[in-house]
Each structure stands twice: as C-alpha cells, then as structure tokens.
Amino acid sequence: MNNTALRIENGMSSFELLQAKVSSLEATEKCMSIEEDRRMAAIDAMDRTYNNPSTPRRTRFELSIELPIQREALKNYHNERSRVSAELRGLRTAIDLILTVSNYGGEVTPNNRRMIESILA
C-alpha cells in the first residue's frame, strides 16, 4: 500500500485530519497551560494571605478550607493537561512516522501501518 491508499473523509485525507487534530490539541494545550498558570498564581496569592499574620481569623479559617480544595482541583486539571500533552506527542510521532515513510519510497508497509495505528489508538 502507498500513502494514496489512506482513507479520504469529507474531502480530507487521514493525514490532513491528523494535522487538523494536532492543531486543535495544540490550541487546547496552550489554553490549558495558561489556565493552569492562572490557577497556580491564585493559589499562591491565597497561600500568602493565609500565612500573613495580619490576616483576620475568619479569613484564615475560610482559606484553610478553600486552599486544599483549590490544590486538589489544580492537581486534577494538571493531570488532564498532561493527558492532552501525551495525546499530542503520540499524534506528532505518528505524523513524523508517516512523513519518514513517505520520504523513503512512499510505501506504508503493514508493519508501519500497525505502528501508526497503535500510536493513534
């Protein structure tokens, strides 16, 4: 089989669909990274307020409840962003493999196809 045997869907080849998926995930990852940084800054500010000796007791009490909740939410958000990053790395690897195969004779062997499919699974 050669690269022209890749499926065509809605006028786009599978390779073009892969590239579109990578672009979409890159945008998602960038937004998630910005949001994660914003959340970390907010938690740092809350932590500084909590540790400030001039902070009223009621505020410190409220922060003692809110800080663990926000830290757990940040941890979950970070795990989700890591999942998106891992998926993005896998797609980039598949694209690199497809390009390498097409640059060296254009043949997608059954072995290469299985490797690409396992990356995309």
Could you characterize the architecture of this molecule?
With 121 residues, this protein is mainly α. The protein has one domain (9-120). Helices cover 79% and strands 3% of the residues. The chain is built from three helices and two strands. The chain has helices spanning 14-51, 57-103, 110-120, and strands at 8-9, 12-13. It has a two-stranded antiparallel ribbon with strand order 1-2. Strand 1 (8-9) and strand 2 form a beta hairpin. Helix 1 (14-51) packs antiparallel against helix 2 (57-103). The longest helix is centred in the middle third of the chain and has 47 residues, at 57-103.
How does the SSE layout of this entry go?
Elements: E1 8-9, E2 12-13, H1 14-51, H2 57-103, H3 110-120
Antiparallel strand pairs: 1-2
Report on the biggest sheet. Answer: 2 strands, antiparallel
**Which strand-content bin applies to the residues?**
under 5%
Count of helix runs? 3
Structural class: mainly alpha
Q: What integer is the average pLDDT?
A: 84
Order of helices and strands: EEHHH
The backbone outline, from C-alpha atoms, is: rod-shaped
Number of domains: 1
Q: How many beta-strand segments? A: 2
Give the % helix.
Answer: over 70%
Radius of gyration: 23 Å
Given as residue ranges, the uncertain stretches (5+ residues, pLDDT < 50) are 1-6
Distance between the termini: 20 Å
Biggest sheet, strands in spatial order?
Answer: 1-2
